[in-house]
């Protein structure tokens, strides 16, 4: 039978609440819940916080954020930069919060590239050399891993190599030597020790081929859980303050097409904006303070920044992603009026740049980083024009994103979520598609090969 | 986003991958806890309550208590992994609009440290947390008897449900295990475990009548545990519950079995419809469940029909019944 699958993508700079939305879609509270989470970008740098109603907490990095529900599987597709060492540590923490056997519910695509301690050391060496001009890396070697795989596709260590000791040792030694030639002596374990750990990984976790995902999707509903946010996308983000990863729906779309399946595209936004580290943030407002128990200053990322709902940037994010079918609006507890009836939150529907007003960021050509860099320059000069939001946050989000708000979240646990009517169920969107401008230009994006 | 939280120490990783088995889902138990978790301790509890609310105006109480002693082998772990799916299954198929579920565990009061563990009734997945707190005894006396009677006593006298008190509808109680109850409730054990003063021992048959007034009670006997074929155990429970004794070939199918039993009891489905539903939700448990529920689905049960007296009379009619005198335990 056909199952209802979902793609969950953040439309901001990350930290939108993808983890808790994924958790809900997998939880027994949700009819038609998903039985598996598929990751399709990024790697161990993801940090999706999920808190159960009894207060158990885990920061999901490589395991799917549905893992608190017993039996929910995780599949790391070939687009994930897989870090087996971090997987082992994450599984150990999961066991300590009552989720045993997480490794037994994990499958990994053999084609996926390995993120190793050598990449990590090189990443850190490079960021240190940049000094004040840091790009907001998370220090997990993700960028370095992607860079090396692009430059040396045949030599990049891959998951399949973990089961082929001689190839693995040769590739790891070459990787370490190349990076050391470029950056000087790097920290990191001996190749032999690293091989040993990776072989243990291959013996414990099923390494699967491309056909696996098709079977997984036939067995039941699946959530494709995106990492980071569209505004950090390697091509569509504000270059160079981006990540080495495609953060739109695109990779998930590729996997779905291969499996002959479709999915509902769920865009996640907070009712305010946040960003880790440097880069354009037009609506930043340091006076906004909300409880943020799981995001603190990261040594490699810089400060955690907060600002107002930026309809211009979010509309751009939806637009470059090919549009969203539905929206999950999170952190609405922060929008509750204070005792005086007021709220510090504002909505920005246009920017002021010198004498000009800008209400829409027009997407540039595909894969044009020079364009993106000019955009960054423009945004750094832009000043927000604020309006008072009123109480209708779903209306504000629907207007900005051109899709219905299907899920509202007032807190971290699944019990704090409200699924709006039947907007997430099959067919419910058909009637709304006509008035959704998101669909009008999706055709254009497809022509550009974006969807 | 955020910095990487998880250590990438190469030696730790190798050791963790090599650990023979993944850590257990029974985290509390496996952390070395040997005593009942305070949240599940029945001592001094006036009543576990299943109440209506604005969100759940027509609550229906469903309690699942399973034997966690050594005779059950790996079954309790399977149940722990599977039972969280039960709520979703009931809701998804619309068998019950507002289930409120409670999980609990049964040990042996004569030799275990956690003879009875009872969670709270919950309408959402909070009862999963209770499951994770259950201590696995792995003990038991090896004499084919566990303290089911203490669990029955608790269910009879320390539960309060709106489905029964407001609407006269009994809740559903599922006991999952492979042994007999002790023939009488011991005042000393009740005092020790629950904190009640009982003047004299209470015969389990009398207690069963009390339980059945409030709870539509089923006993599920998973195969693969020891004594499964033990005629004495089967006939003991058939004597108490008649056809409400379900033999289950594959404990993986426990949620489907419970869900269909409730669906049948609620008159929400026929057995055939229910088995078709299982196919819809992607379950492969159909054949197992079909076998287990053949008797119940034959139309002999209904909400008002399973009195204790009926159960006793129906023993002889159960097709898979046992020969020998064990099948004819009378309930007075």
Word description of this protein:
The complex is a heterodimer of chains A (451) and B (332). With 451 residues, chain A is of the alpha/beta class. Chain A contains 13 helices and 17 strands. Chain A has a 10-stranded mixed sheet, sandwiched between helices. In chain A, strands 10, 11, 13, 14 and 15 form a 5-stranded mixed sheet that branches. In chain A, strand 5 (73-76), helix 2 and strand 6 form a beta-alpha-beta unit. In chain A, helix 5 crosses helix 6 (191-204). Chain B is α/β, with parallel strands linked by helices and 332 residues long. Helix content of chain B is 36%, strand content 15%. Chain B has helices spanning 10-18, 27-30, 75-82, 84-92, 127-133, 148-157, 162-167, 187-193, 204-214, 231-241, 254-265, 271-280, 286-293, 308-314; strands at 48-50, 60-67, 99-106, 116-118, 145-146, 159-161, 171-176, 180-181, 184-185, 202-203, 215-222, 245-248. In chain B, the strands form 4 sheets. In chain B, strands 4-3-2-7-11-12 form a 6-stranded mixed sheet, with helices on both faces. Chain B has a two-stranded parallel ribbon with strand order 1-6. In chain B, helix 10 (231-241) links the parallel strand 11 (215-222) and strand 12. In chain B, helix 11 (254-265) crosses helix 13 (286-293). Chain B is globular, with a radius of gyration of 20 Å. The interface between A and B is large, with 75 and 44 residues.
């Amino acid at each position: 039978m056909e199952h209802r699958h979902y793609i969950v993508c953040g439309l901001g700079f990350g930290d939108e609440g993808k983890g808790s939305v994924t958790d809900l879609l997998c939880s027994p509270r949700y009819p038609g819940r998903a039985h598996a989470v598929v990751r399709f970008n990024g790697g161990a740098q993801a940090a999706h916080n999920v808190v159960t109603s009894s207060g158990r907490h885990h920061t999901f990095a490589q395991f799917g954020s549905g893992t608190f529900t017993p039996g929910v599987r995780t599949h790391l597709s070939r687009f994930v930069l897989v870090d087996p060492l971090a997987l082992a540590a994450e599984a150990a923490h999961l066991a300590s919060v009552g989720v045993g056997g997480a490794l037994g519910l994990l499958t990994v695509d053999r084609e996926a590239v390995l993120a190793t301690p050598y990449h990590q050391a090189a990443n850190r060496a490079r960021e240190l050399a940049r000094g004040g001009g840091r790009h907001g890396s998370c220090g997990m070697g993700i960028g370095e891993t992607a860079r090396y795989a692009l430059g040396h596709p045949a030599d990049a260590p891959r998951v399949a190599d973990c089961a082929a000791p001689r190839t693995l040792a040769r590739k790891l030694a070459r990787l370490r030597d190349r990076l050391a030639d470029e950056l000087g002596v790097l920290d990191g374990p001996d190749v032999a020790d690293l091989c040993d750990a990776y072989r243990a990984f291959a013996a414990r976790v099923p390494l699967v081929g491309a056909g696996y995902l098709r079977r997984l999707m036939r067995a039941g509903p699946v959530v494709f859980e995106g990492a980071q946010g569209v505004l950090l996308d390697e091509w569509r983000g504000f270059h160079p303050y981006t990540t080495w990863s495609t953060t739109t729906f695109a990779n998930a779309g590729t996997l779905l097409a291969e499996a002959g399946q479709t999915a509902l595209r769920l865009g996640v936004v907070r009712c305010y904006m946040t960003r880790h580290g440097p880069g354009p943030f037009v609506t930043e407002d340091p006076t906004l303070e909300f409880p943020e128990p799981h995001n603190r200053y990261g040594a490699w990322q810089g400060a955690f920044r907060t600002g107002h709902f930026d309809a211009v940037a979010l509309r751009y994010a939806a637009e470059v992603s090919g549009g969203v079918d539905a929206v999950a609006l999170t952190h609405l507890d922060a929008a509750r009026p204070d005792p005086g009836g007021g709220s510090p939150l504002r909505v920005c529907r246009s920017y002021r740049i010198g004498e000009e007003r800008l209400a829409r960021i027009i997407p540039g050509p595909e894969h044009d980083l020079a364009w993106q860099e000019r955009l960054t320059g423009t945004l750094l000069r832009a000043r927000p024009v604020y309006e008072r939001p009123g109480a209708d946050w779903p209306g504000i989000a629907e207007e900005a994103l051109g899709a219905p708000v299907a899920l509202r979240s007032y807190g971290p646990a699944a019990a704090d979520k409200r699924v709006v009517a039947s907007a997430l169920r099959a067919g419910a969107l058909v009637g709304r598609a006509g008035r959704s401008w998101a669909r009008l230009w999706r055709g254009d994006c497809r022509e550009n090969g974006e969807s | 986003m955020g910095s990487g939280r998880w250590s990438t120490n190469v030696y730790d990783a190798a050791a963790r991958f090599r650990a023979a088995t993944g850590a257990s889902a029974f985290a509390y138990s496996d952390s070395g806890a040997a005593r009942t978790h305070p949240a599940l301790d029945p001592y001094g509890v006036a009543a576990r309550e299943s109440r209506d609310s604005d969100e759940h105006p027509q609550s229906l109480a469903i309690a699942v208590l399973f034997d966690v002693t050594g005779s059950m082998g790996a079954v309790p772990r399977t149940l722990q992994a599977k039972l969280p799916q039960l709520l979703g299954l009931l809701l998804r198929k619309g068998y019950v609009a507002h289930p409120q579920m409670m999980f609990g565990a049964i040990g042996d009061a004569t030799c275990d440290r956690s003879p009875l563990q009872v969670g709270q009734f919950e309408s959402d997945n909070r009862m999963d947390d209770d499951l994770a707190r259950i201590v696995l005894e792995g003990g038991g006396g090896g004499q084919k008897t566990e303290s089911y009677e203490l669990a029955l006593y608790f269910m009879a006298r320390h539960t309060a449900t709106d489905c029964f008190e407001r609407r006269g509808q009994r809740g559903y109680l599922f006991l999952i295990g492979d042994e007999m109850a002790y023939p009488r409730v011991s005042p000393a054990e009740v005092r020790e475990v629950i904190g009640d003063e009982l003047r004299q021992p209470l015969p389990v048959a009398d207690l069963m009548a009390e339980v059945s007034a409030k709870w539509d009670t089923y006993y599920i006997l998973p195969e693969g545990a020891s004594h499964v074929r033990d005629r004495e155990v089967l006939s003991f429970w058939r004597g108490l519950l008649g056809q409400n004794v379900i033999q289950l070939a594959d404990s993986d199918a426990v949620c489907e079995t419970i869900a269909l039993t409730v669906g049948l009891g609620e008159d929400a489905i026929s057995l055939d419809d229910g088995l078709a539903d299982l196919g819809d939700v992607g379950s492969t448990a159909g054949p197992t469940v079909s076998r287990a529920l053949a008797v119940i689905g034959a139309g002999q049960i209904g909400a008002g029909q399973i009195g204790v007296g009926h159960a006793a009379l129906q023993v002889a009619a159960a097709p898979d019944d046992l020969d020998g005198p064990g099948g004819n335990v009378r309930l007075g």
